[in-house]
């Protein structure tokens, strides 16, 4: 699947809390990204949490990417950053209606149409 020295997890990686229907069915990940997460996710999580130590240059680079995300180059690094952003980041919620109340202070409101109407009336009168 992927030409890498990155260790596969001992078991498949799932996040039933945030992605209970699976990574691909969430609509956020492609099938390829889902496969990478399920196969390598346990190792990436272990490296991130410090329960595993890096055993090769790819895993060392992965640890560097966790500190500096802009260094991400491989598919594994990018998919893990995407996963952490979606799973741990704040979920966006879009609505059609806002709940913000208008300001009570209307003293700053200027009705420009009313000013123009009075100016026209004044000019017609002269």
TrEMBL record:
Highest taxon in the source lineage: Bacteria
Ranges where the record places region Disordered: 92-126
Biased composition (Acidic residues): 105-116
InterPro entries, per database record: DUF413
Family: Belongs to the MaoP family.
Name the UniProt record assigns to this protein: Macrodomain Ori protein
